[in-house]
Amino acid sequence: MATARSAEGSTGSDSGGEGVRRRDFLNVAAVSFAGVGGVAALAPLLVQMSPSADVLAQATTEVDISKIQPGQGIKSQWRKQPVFIRNLTPKEIAEANAVPLSDLRDPETLAQRTKPGKTNWLITLGVCTHLGCVPLGIGEGENRGKYGGYFCPCHGSQYDTAARIRQGPAPKNLFVPDYQFTTPTTVTIGAKG
Amino acid sequence: MSFSWAKPYEPKHPLMRWLDERLPLPRLVYGAIGGGYPVPRNLNYWWNFGVLAGIFLTIQIITGIVLAMHYTASTDGAFNSVNQLIMRDVNAGWLLRYAHMNGASFFFLVTYIHIFRGLYYGSYKAPRELVWMLGLVIYLLMMATAFMGYVLPWGQMSYWGAQVITGFFSALPIVGDPLRIWILGGYAPDQAALTRFFSLHYLLPFVIAGVVILHIWALHIPGSNNPTGVDVKDERDTLPFHPYYTAKDGWFAAAVLLFYALVTYFLPDYLGNPDNYIPANNLATPAEIVPEWYLLPFYAILRSFTADFILPAKLWGVLAMFFLPWLDKSPVRSGRYRPVFKRFFWLLVIDVIVLGWVGGSPVRPLTVAVGQIAAAYYFLHFLVILPLVSRFETTLPLPLSISESVLHGETGRDSPAVTKPRRSKAATAVVD
Amino acid sequence: MVRVIGFLIGLVFAGILLLAFISNLSSYFTNPPTPLAAEEFHRAPKELHLASDGPFGHFDKQQLQRGFQIYSEVCSACHSMKLVSFRDLKGLGYDDAEIKKIASDWKTQVPSINPDTGEETTRKAMPSDTFPLPFPNEVAARAANNNALPPDLSLITKAREGGAAYVYSILTGFQNQPPELLKKFPDAKTPANLHYNPYFANLNIAMPPPLTTDGQVTYAPGNPKPTVDQMARDVAAFLVWTAQPDLEARHAAGIAVVIFLLFATILAYLAKQQIWHEVHSGVRETGPLDPVNQAKTRRAKAKAGVAG
Asked: CATH classification of A55-189, choosing from 1.10.530.10, 3.40.710.10, 2.102.10.10, 3.40.50.1100?
């Protein structure tokens, strides 16, 4: 229903153009304020889904590596994911260094994947970069594939002694997380170097 | 709805035309809350509270869904999931929890004002009886939802409130105790009760939303009531909902949200009970078991029946309101023109406030006595007094129309043609 | 029909309530309730002003640190604080290294499993742990405390009527039972294992006074003297923080939101007034037969001297 004005002149009509602009400005201002408020109200609803403080507090895990002999490895956890910590033998280190980078799908040297002076300690996530299965090879007697590293039974990805992808569908080497040697016998995984 | 001068929906934008041909949703919205829904022009601010209730329902659903992402419904995990995880660790968790807690209080506050508006202005009368009854269904669902929600943090009051309220069911003869055990899934509130309350607490607000849609739909058939209680006669009596009432509802909603923010940010625990910050202990009863403030009047009615009485009395309190359209037969709707009714209305308001105070007080003989008088008045008001008043009252003259009342003042006395003051008897309909 | 039934039901309900009322009152007058010692001698909490009070409240971090020191040295012997993690102490102004030290030095250790043998053992706490429990379970706690369970302190200032003022009053309210009480209520002598404290609901609390002497805890230089009163204030302030770590963020956000909504309300109100202006000023859709317009037309005609 239009708000038609009555027959006699009304006060607003002379400032018709001005009045419309003032009217619109106020309405636009009020609605934009409401809009900004609405968007601001959205912020807590979205941010609450981000990891909460207790989850973030689990961001680092300390592992005692004193009992791992050369040639052995242990499976640990970091951020609820499996971590492989392996003590490489000199033979395994030599094998890794002998591979030309051009042969690698994801070229990286062993030195790039370990800490200086501690190239025997190979610490990677135990998550196959293909679709996320946990590869075999870390435990005693497990199948280590034909490159002597890790073997993923789901789709046949084979990793070498430096946990680099050599064969199979996985696109990348096993992920090396940030870690620090807090003492010669403890590693803190998740701590930046 | 049924006003012939309602502006029809005429989409100009080609996209809107395309949409309208395939799914007439914009048309529906336009006709319900847009420029195409005529509303009496003389609505006062008591008419703002329906939309406010809708706003708080939305706030509760949104904050509730988000809280449910972090809540654990187990007897050993619930308290910690609320008071440790949500309140301390979840980003903005404290805000969501306080918003949800106080949102419930505000939801009830605006709903009570909305109900009392209906009582005063006769909005429950024909042809809006179904709007009234659907509204009471919403109210019952709200009470159930709020009760179950309060159990979820598994504090002392959560547990003992659940124990007391479910205990009332065992007062029913024969089926009472089996019913209570069936509801709880056990002999006392425990894991089974907690998980099912969580499930139902998540479900019921959506049921409420559905009934709200029916409630609004039923309203939009005859259109809104107005402070004079006189029906809309022609287009001079109405204004399109948009922009007039969207603007009016909008600013008032901002003011109420301001008040809500003050409570949520600065007094978040004021309306609550400290005992609920103590983890539930089934071996130790708190000194006073009290529900949240919005349930206090019915709690007081319940506790007033100190003589053995088998039926759940507080349910009767709500049921009494259901039949109001048939109990109050005055053809004059609005309390504005019913001087005797008006006085009893305010007596009811005072009575409910007194009942609330009694409900929150420790059980002492004198307080219980006051509660018993107040509870008796409550039932007498709806079931005895109102029917009698509507029968014998002399009402004031009504204005000819809404526009008359707007132009010439609120009583019909000033309008050019005055209706004779009439006794309700002469106009009593035959239908009972 | 509905009205008749409703009428009768109403009378029945009112009647039942009236009977209940009469029986209630008659039993009150024939058998008046006996006064309790607790009702008469119970005292409301003392006044306590903290930096965290009021809408602009904030935390005095130095006071919180003193309060934490009291918790560590005095209260933690019996009271758990299981909802608070060591990492939360950042809110008191400690940095990561300090928190790590506080956690690993904590006198109680966290239950753990020996990684080699699988036996139950304990380990040093880490920042991500919550404060270890002083007793492994409720039974042990009661056994060590005359069958009383020292409540967890994480939420204590929210879980008691009176909040921090109540905690402060309890800590400073231990005294000898007044002779007037014994004269009036000879049966209300404080039992042997309990301690008289008028700020506690039933006057006799199981906790022995934890803060007994000035200087019980040594504060670092630059802090007020550790009198019993000061220590009680400090620990009460700390317990406000444990219960409401969100307080400062909440107040800051609240002020911003309230100011925003104030502006929004004012703007929205002005917009509404503008939209309604025509309606309120009486300009409306009308026609020539409207009495108001007829009156106006008559007046205008009379002015112009045109005949009716």
From this structure: 2.102.10.10
Dihedral over alpha carbons B135, B136, B141, B142 (to 10 degrees): 80
Model-level pTM greater than 0.90? no
Chain B partners within 8 Å of A53 (Cβ): 88-91
B344 Cβ contact list (under 8 Å, min separation 6) = B381, B385, B386, B389
Q: Which of A17-26, A121-130, B51-60, B390-399 has the lowest mean pLDDT?
A: A17-26
Amino acid identity at A137: G
- Distance (Å, rounded) from C-alpha B31 to C-alpha B10? 11
Let me know if A130 is a catalytic residue: no
Residue C115 is encoded by which pair of tokens? Answer: 């990684």
| A77, A61 Cβ separation under 8 angstroms | yes
Q: Which of A155, A156, A172, A183 is catalytic?
A: A155
* Token pair for C123: 């380990």
Nearest to B71 by CA among C176, A25, A52: A52
| C-alpha gyration radius of chain C | 33
Asked: is C38-84+130-245 a CATH 1.20.1740.10 domain? The reply is no
Token pair for A108: 């990286």
- All residue ranges of chain C with pLDDT < 50 are 285, 308
- Whether A54 and C128 lie within 8 Å, measured CB to CB: yes
Alpha helices in B72-220 (DSSP H): 78-80, 93-121, 129-151, 156-169, 176-184, 191-220
Which residues 248-267 of C are in CB contact (within 8 Å) with B? 249-251, 253-255, 257-258, 261-262, 264-265
Say if the ipTM goes beyond 0.90. Answer: no
What are the beta bridge partners of residue C196?
A: C204
